[in-house]
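Q: My labmate handed me this sequence with no annotations at all. I'd like to see what the chain might look like in three dimensions before we decide whether it's worth expressing. Could you predict it?
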Amino acid sequence: MQQPNSPPIHRKVGAGQGWRWFVEAFQIVRQQPLTWVLLTLVYLVIQIALSVVPVLGDLASALIGPLFAAGFVMAAAKSERGEELELADLFAAFRQMPGPLLLLGAMIFGLMLVVIVAAVAMGVSGGLMGGLLGKAAGAGASTAAGGGAAVALGALALIGGVLVGMAYWFAPTMVALNRIDPWPALRASLKACLSNWLPLLVASLVLGLSCMVALLPLGLGLLLWIPVAFVTAYTGWRDVFAPQQ
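A: Here is what I predict for the chain of 245 residues:
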């Protein structure tokens, strides 16, 4: 029997469920579209305001990102209970659990820094190796070594970014709805995503394609696409993780 606040147990689902996550998220948003658009507008205004503040704005955006993600998730759960949404729901996590979600944001920011530093370090070492080989065997060997280092650098950054994204995908939902501490939530999310990489890939492709469609009418479709994207993490969590015992 699970202990309180322990990570929920995940299960493996079929690839087609990734499409279902998107469809179910769209259905949730469609029930109260105007309110979801209002939440999204306020969210975007805050993000734009932060983006004009050099350095500190980007840091603040990274730290409070999980708070907004949790707000959208909690709004989705509230909507499924048949309750009317309101603007205050966007800030529900700020009121109820700011500490754990701010810590989650800091952890994700730190993990991304580790990926970037590791990639840069590999690039530097690859450049040094290329220089040494160039002196020993001429410009051709130097170019080949530099090209190999660039490929390795790109691969490391891509793999690291994907793993961090997997660790984050379900984490805000688990912190908000399961009341899991941030680090166990990150580990549980990573394990669940690795077990369900196929439906996650399908959901990501569907979100990517639908984003391109949303951009067509002057980008106005993003006002509905953004909440659908957030709620897709919620519908995926609901499908992948067994109910608490």
